[in-house]
Here is the input.
Amino acid sequence: MADIFNGKDVKVYYNDDTGNRAVITGGNIQINELAAYPSFSMGTEVQKIETYNDEYSNAIEGQKTVDNVTLVVNYIPTDPTHEYLDKKYDNQEEFQITIFVNENNEAGRLESVMLNGVLGSRMLNGDKDSVVTMTYDFVPTEVISYAPRDIPPVLRRGDFGVGSDGSIDYPQYQPDQATGNAFVKISASDIDNPSGVDLMGIELVDQQAENTNIMMTTTGDLRLYARNATTPWTRLYTSGEADTRYLIKSNNLSDLTNFESARSNLSVYSKSETDNKFMIGPNNLSELTNVVVARQKLEVYSQSETDAKFLQAANNLSDIVDTAIARTNLGINSTLENDAKYLQVENNLSDVKDVATARTNLGINSTIENDAKYLQVSNNLSDVSDAAAARTNISVYSKAESDATYVPKTTTVNGHALDSNVTVSKADVGLGSVTDDPQLKISANLSDLSNVAKARTNLGINSTIENDAKYLQVSNNLSDVADVDTVKQNIGLDRFKQSPSETMIYPSSGQNPYRITIRPNGDWGTWRDDTGTWEPLKIVAGGTGATNKKDARLNLNIPAAYKIIPDGTNILGWFIENNESGFFSSGENVINKPAEGHGWWTYNFKIHLRNQEGKPEFGVVEATSAANIMYIIVLTNGQWPHGWFKIVRENDNVQLRDLKLTQYDTGFSGHLELYNIQNNNPKGLTQLYNEFQDGVLKTTIRTVNLEKDRNWYLQWDENGSLWNIQNILSNDLYFGPHSVRKLHTRHGTLLVDGTATPYYYTFGNPDGRRSVTEFGTVEDGWIFYGQVNRDLSKQLDVNGVVNASAFNQASDRDLKENIEVISNAIDRVRAIGGYTYTLKENGMPHAGVIAQEVRDVLPEASGSFTKYVDLPGPTQDGTPLREEERFYSVDYAGITALLVQAFKEMDEKITKLEEQQKQIDELKELVQKLLDNK
Here is the structure.
């Protein structure tokens, strides 16, 4: 087995955030199973300049180059870090790697390399006797850092906008929104800040549309705020604020400052008010001051009134004054009335006054009437008044009638006893006089019939002659069929026909011209009676769909084999008319062949698509001459619009004359490519583009290093304008007395030399700033810049004095909302001092206020701004190093509003004092008058 590299002091980390500048950060993830030492190297091109009359040469450092980094791992397909590398290679996504070359925790030093780039290739190696490894080729696009540095403390400040840890090696990095759990700061000027002062706290990330935060104010009163993905900013009160703002449960409302107001707000009475206003339950209404009025209000009677007015249950209605009226009111009778009016059960109807009427009402008869009307069971029908009529009604005979109608029971037949088999003679059945002569005898087998024809008629049968004439005979094998075609049709065999020369099978439809034919010579297939021709067997049925070789080749897409094109033929038209792919040849006496070459030619025509008429619509013809010269021509929309193109091979010398870069497709511009090939391997290429964009003709030259996957552009137009689409990191390009150079891959800087003080103009996204335009001098730094902040607010900063006729702020009421008067304005003014001072950066004297004092009393009039300080030396890719520091600012218009409101409050106090003084003067005058008159 091969040795496995353990990578003792070498570690490689990856990070999705290519804007990260912290070597040690929570976003770095170590790549597992490192199998080889990842090498890193940088080179610098040195250009020597010979100076006239000088024996020495000057060497100038030029463009720096960074070689690819090879990462080799003991490949585990399910390892998350290996899956990450495979995903980045498949998607060709840029990411960041950090290589720890030597991490010495005891000395607190770390040697590392931080690069941004993409994976250019990968290769899997290994067999049964070696570890399976995957080799990734990392192509750097940006060098972030390459230097030893101190290992930062365990609390890795600088991650996700926490701030710098004091070292310029770890500049502050703050994205627009945290991409991982982080300590964050939200500036007072941020539109997402709910407090008006700076907030610091924790931001948690959980793949939601909004992150979760808990923040606290950095100055002034301590205030806490929180939010999550579904709830906006919410104020969290501290225990002290809650104690002063809310009632404490354990105090049982004893901490109310005004009980009367509380009861009024709750619309409840005090205990004494309740006792005075309402009756107490245990007193059982004894507090009523006027019982009579209370009963009237409740609409109830007193006990005496109830006893006098209503019947009492205990009296069992004995207290009814007039029982007769009561019974009348109830609709009931007295006992005497019921006894006189109704039959009593115990009398068993004996108290019925008129029995006959009662029987009539009930519809029943008396016993005498029933005996007279109905037959009695005990009489056994002896009480029937008319026995003959009764027998007639029930359809039965009398005894005499039965004897006369039916044969009486017997024991003999014609004197023959019935105790054994009875032999009946002809005489017994009335045939004693019949002789044997006229009857048919069994032994005669009907030969004794006197009239055979009549006997057949009686039996409904035919004679033999009749049957032979009427039915087919088996011995004739259907030769006695009168109409063979009708028989075939009746038994479903009419589609089969036979002639001396063929056997035919027709389809069921009588009008169909197709039939299957089999001939004695072996020919068979589908024949058309209407045209008298064979019908080709379709491809889906295993045939070719054609009746000749050419059509069969077309249908089966089989190329022709070396057809000869006749002399004098227009070969381009012939290819279309011949209408088949394949190999063809011709002599040199044909029309529209390639211009170069003599002797015979061979052609390979490849048809891509045919039109509705079956003619070639798209395809390619490759032509080869006897002199081994190759050409190609393309068929497009049935035409040959581009003519013949010569195929240039490696051993050919190419001479160009009147080269035209013609745009042949609306999606592309004309271009020319020149390859540099060594040992059959292309090393690089140069491309020349001829473009026509927005009415302006442009020319672009592009140089590509295929091995390093690097390319550069240079473009100019018909107006003389020049663009360098990608960065030119070499020496300055001179145009007249000045020079122009791009210094950063992520933003552009225009540097103009040749003046007393070189100046620059920067635009784009430098140093992590969102979007900025900056102007300054190389020696003294920036003069002014305008930028869009991370909160999308706009900012214009001037590093010096601004002179103007006037500065006007928009202040229309229609532009504002949540308008409130500034409260306690005088007290706030007292907390702000007026000062004179000198600025540290230039020593100039000024007068004004202190932003922190304004921020404490009127945060709406205080903001913040960022100052950028250039640090020594740019990075290796030309990016200027800058330090970012935030300071407070003051809105003097807000101070003016505070002073206006303070003046109004003071004016109100003065007015009140004047009124009081007036009253004092009047009182003094009155007192004086009283003293004078005493």
Observations:
- Residues 414 and 428 are 7 Å apart (CA to CA).
- The mean pLDDT is 77.
